[in-house]
Fold TniB protein.
Amino acid sequence: MIHLNKETAHIVTLSDEERINRILSYKWIGYTKAREILQTMEYLLIHPKIHRMPNMLLVASTNNGKTILLNRFFEAHKPVVTPETEQLTIPVLYVQAPFKPDERMFFINILEALNAPYSVKERSLRLYQQVVSILKKVDTKILIIDEIHHILAGGYITQRVFLNMIKYLANDLQIVIIASGIRDALSAINTDKQLANRFEPAILPKWTMDEEYLRLLSSFEAILPLKNPSNLTQEDIAMKILSLSGGTIGEISTILKKAAVQAIHNKKECIDLQLLGRTGYIAPANRQKQYEGLLI
């Protein structure tokens, strides 16, 4: 079974139920742009403290891998305790931006991510001081703020106040901020020109019919425990998957998982054009039409 990698070649001998479980489980697939961004994050992690720290703005379409990428980096730099001193170090802290630009909610999100006690009645200034004190104590190097585009849910003045808070937090701590969001994140950050100049954009573009996309399909084929080769890089199959998915890696993964499960159920053990048309998958562009149809 030369179409499979060594690990998957072993999995393919398991029962149908076990193979389906493996298919539906998450598995990281690295690709050039993702590796480049991870490498940049590693560089930012070891950047010495300076007055104006570098920052990153990670931008991607919905379901195109940004949150998975951030989680992979975060998981690689989990909190550690030095045995000799029992000192806790949290090199990377991951939080979500609140659903609206509310600094108090943001500080609470940070404190909850730190498992730190706080008073729900505490004023914003006191919460800010508590956040700064703890992050200094645990020697945090990078603060990841996902879904940064949420700040656009507030008015202009509220947005500016929230962005100023992020700027002051970065200055006080001399840490790197990695903000992340959909395309609107660019608009969110650009409402403050001074802050925008501090954030270097990193874009995860949608997939197109090129060599990198075909390598991605080959990687998927190597980890899907099907007994027969699917030849996913064949032009008609590759184009069909790309067209259905809208060019996002999350949708590509969903399509291939659905198809692989069906290939096991019907004993075909491979993915072809006919099977792709019978998975029950609904493309993102057609989902709204389906919802509207249900309401008629």
In short: The chain is about 50% helix and 10% strand. The two ends are 49 Å apart (CA to CA).
